[in-house]
Amino acid sequence: MNATMLLIFDALLLASIIGLAWAALASADARRSVILFIAFGLLLAVAWGRLLAPDVALAEAAIGAGLTGALLLAALQWQPRKTADTTNSEQPTHTLLETGFRWLVTLLCAALAGMLAWSLTQIDAGTAKDALANAVAANIDASGVSNPVTAVLLNFRAYDTLLELAVLLTAVLGIFALGPAQAGYRIAGPVFSSLTRWLTPLLILTAGYLLWVGAHAPGGAFQAGATLAAAGVVLRLAGRDQIGLPRGNALRIALGAGVGMFLLVGLALFALGRPFLGYPPAWAGALILLIETAAMLAIAATLVSAFIGGQPTEEKTRC
User: Fold this and answer.
1) Mean pLDDT taken over the chain
2) How many domains does the chain have?
3) In angstroms, what CA-CA distances link 104 with 26, 28, 191, 309?
4) Which end of the chain has fewer surrounding CB within 10 Å, N or C?
5) Which of 223, 222, 191, 226 lies closest to 307 in space, CA to CA?
């Protein structure tokens, strides 16, 4: 593909992303907005792939578009539908305060976009824009992995990933505070049930592959966790009571596994006289895989718990 075709493709992709974002925000129908948001997320994943960031593209497609869209649709399921009044053709009116607030938010978003654009031009104009990439490349052999993204997230900037997992743990505690999980869906028909039987094992195998390959190729705990959670979401949509989510203390262990394994490894290294999360080069690869495995389980359990909307309860198996 020549440069002209790539330029046309990029322009169409950019216009589509902006158009879908505007349509999702401007739509008065919440369900239509969610569908547009999912399409927006998929195009955004394509854009990340075009920017040669496959790790971010995988995360955007799995979490940003797929599971987030499923969460929004599940939330809308419990919202009452607005019925159109055919006898009243009056359009909804907005007060002066509401109109002013809309314009204020629009101006603030435009100002934020301008600041980000200015920051991007300043970064491109700098002479040390490749300093981080060069630093990662110079120390990649000591990281225990050959994928620079995994090296940064799980070694060089492991504190950031630890805090991200802590945020997820805090979020799921808030979800559990809402009470028991929502009632499940009715049993799906034969077509979707048959699809579930082969799709669920495929998602589980894909999650294991993404976890393993993350050491040297795009993948890792977040992508694997989202894919594993997708298996639970599919089972839930099919009306299954058993969706792979443990109960009781086993669920609590799974939810805290990511943060717990990070802290356990960090404290063990600290006790051995090394910095907190300062992996020895000879052990770095094995320790990263151990942490990512625990993180995958925690992310999957958190996302499935968010989808069912509360703390799971013991349910009787349907006949």
Assistant:
1) 85
2) 1
3) 15, 19, 49, 33
4) C
5) 226
